[in-house]
Amino acid sequence: VTFRDLDPARAWEPYEPGPDRPWDLVRAGHLFRRAGFGADWGELERALRQGPQRTLDRLLRPTEDARAFDRTHDGYEAAVGAGDAEALRAWWLRRMLTTPRPLQEKMTLFWHGHFAVSNARVKDARLMRALVATLRAHALGSFRTLLEAVAEDPAVALGLGAGVGRKARPNEEFARVLLEVFTLGPEACTEQDVRDCARAFTGWSVFRGRRRYYAREHDGGRKTILGRTGALAAADAVRLALEHPATARHIVRRLYRWLISEADPPADEALIAPLSASFARDHDIGKLVERMLRSNLFFSAAAYRQRIKSPVEFALGIARSAEAVVPTTPLGGHLAALGQDLLHPPTVRGWSGGRHWINGATWAGRSRLALALLGGPGPYGEKLDAAALAGRHGHATPAEAGRFLLDLYLQGDVTPQARAALLQGLERSGRDAKTSVRACAHGLAALPEFHLA
Amino acid sequence: MWMSGESAMNSTRRDFLKATLGASAVLSLGGAVPEWLVRSARAASTGGDRDTVLVVVQLTGGNDGLNTVVPFEDDAYARSRPTLRLPPAKVHRIDTHLGFHPRMAACARLFQEGKLAVVQGVGYPRSSRSHEPAMRVWQTADPARPERPAGWLGRMADRIQEARAVSLPVVFVGATARPLAVNAEDGFVPSIRAAEDLVLVAPPGAAARRREPGRSRRAADGPLLDHLRRTAAEARVASERIARVLAAGRNARPYPDLGLAARLRTVARLVRADLGIRVFFTELGGDGFGGFDNHANQLGNHCALLHQLSESVSAFVADLEADGLLDRVLLMTPSAFGRTVAENGRRGTGHGAAAPLILAGGGLKGGLHGSHPSLTDLDEGACRFHTDFRRVYATVIDRWLGLDPTVVPGGPFPPAEILKA
């Protein structure tokens, strides 16, 4: 990381390939890990051919195919019963695994970790489905529209204990989360703001899965929220929180961690400021994401491998790159055991991520999951066959297949020692090609570098 | 004080570490020696940080304390329980008034040997009698904010990991849903079904021992990659040690064929492998068959559960003792609430309040702690508490684990005199 990378004037300018920073396999792989769940070989080749701008265009703009895909999947999910969050989790994972528009799913997952209510409290998979659909619809749209929809969402109300909004019992938990987690971030508002925001939401309840307003239960008195005084209602509280300058900074920072770097210490205020100023004006999520992904900073050492893959990114990365549609029902459970139970974030702050994903047990568990995904007896069967994949791409011998997998998954960017150790194993005699290549792929997934996004 | 305090290590423990770890093992790992391993090895020679272990066995559903530690001489007991009362001749007598349930012979023996203690009348003010809120109170250790999302052991795990002391400070052992107690704000407390879960897998036909690929470092490597490499090295060492324990365990002491016994055997294996895990959480009665929540026909079900508890704990104690590890381990059995004194007309009991907490291990003061609550001066039909469960938790965290007891809010709590000096 150089001083130049983090110079605010230069950091957010669009990346242009040059002799010292060519558009190569490494940068293409980096882009697909962050803007999606990893690339297959065809996507990497096309990206190299088309260059960064057109590749980003394709990631950012939906096609008619993508809309049809979403409609089909909406239909599948509509059949999920209220008590079957496991089925909904599996459908979502399948969508992530097969979507023609991975950035949209990646951002839906981001918002799920930001508006992190858990079905452990909502206890209704149909309401969770509606919430995730809302997050998806606005994942790259207007943050104003998204926040307004979330503030009115029945799952969010139930997930924050605000199913009943009586005048006599304003729900401060909901108000605190709205201000301190969803919008302004920590330490930006007072206890009075929280109390009066809770009063502004009185009258709103959830009745049979729908939000209902009971005018007689609304506290119409004077309130002071974030410096404004008046007979403020719920919509006013949402608008004031949205327009508070801390909100744009908070969202930009969270997105910075998601798309650019989890490394500590977090980015300087000066680096964040140009983005938060612009986001505060238009609340355009798509524009913000696009600016980050197209930037010099994104393609610099300050971002490259500066995130740890979540369990979802780890597992889907293995399968998606190998063009394998693995069964997602067992996968949902396995990911939960690794610390990421979709639809059940641990707290309302979502998953902390970063080095918290990795401990002695999750490390061993990731290795076990990689082995299962790579085929053999077990829940994933032979959906993923690394040797056959390499063969389809013209790499017939185990040694060629090993080099192909290194390029596919890590774009060849590993230490010479690791490369030698992985490829050496392939030349041992006495094993069939499939077994050798599988062992090599498993060894690759056990490299510490593989766990960086 | 936080992460300090005098050593609780005895010479057996040091010998054990020397034998299993040894200088040669440290050297053979070269530059990739994990931090905790170095600390652990250092502790073995200097007697540094504590290596005590807490095992929490939650009695899920609300245990009937009166039929666990039985006031068999009390007229009110016999009067209140026409079908559920246990005959005085069959209880295992502690003194002239109290005795263990007839199926708890093994616990009674541990009690005689000073390896088991009973803290009586444990609860908290205005205790809840609904499952969900009461469970949340005990698992968050925060009656003022039971809606908080992280449990007391999850919060403790976060603090230990923040200090980068060990990779796996707390684990949940079992196949049931992960309980709130281990839910953390930042980190992730893993669920372990068997010790084998921590053994690194290799595909069939893989080279027996690949060269450690992460050995060389480059200047641009950041803290995230360092963390991954350190954890990978730790996991490799842990895996080898568990494999050794499992291989050596072929002739180990027997455990009864009971669910809790199997989970405690897993705990014993992990304690023996010495991975730096400080707290194990497991459940009895949490497998969806009602557990300790016996509103009807309580007698048989409660018998079976207490028998399972007693036999499993006793096998666990014997196993640890055989290896000289018992002095490092403390087991305790929280629940959600006791039950009503009177039975309910369906040969069962309702949700109550105070109940006894059973402790087992080598470092405790055996015997009875506190008096048995009155069976006539009741709190809505249930025993009144006199010892706040948070006192016991805070004492265990502070004095047994040597960690910061402020993870239990509302303190400071006066220490409970339940541990050996």
Q: Quote the average pLDDT of chain B.
A: 85
Largest interface, with Cβ-Cβ < 8 Å? A-B, 60 and 49 residues
Overall pLDDT metric of chain A: 95
Structure annotation, total helices of chain B: 11
Distance between the termini of chain B: 16 Å
Strand content of chain A: under 5%
| Element-level helix/strand string of chain A | HHHHHHHHHHHHEEEEHHHHHHHHHHH
Q: What percent of residues of chain B are in strands?
A: 5-15%
Helix content of chain B: 25-40%
Strand order within the widest sheet of chain A?
1-2
What Rg of chain B, in angstroms, do the CA atoms define?
22 Å
User: Helicity level of chain A, as a percent range?
Assistant: 55-70%
What is the chains' assembly state? heterodimer
H/I helix tally of chain A = 23
Low-confidence stretches of chain B: 1-35, 40-48, 208-217
Distance between the termini of chain A: 17 Å
CA-based shape of chain A: globular
**What is the helix/strand order of chain B?**
HHHEEHEEHEHHEEHHEHEEEEEEH
Radius of gyration of chain A: 23 Å
Helix/sheet category of chain B: alpha/beta
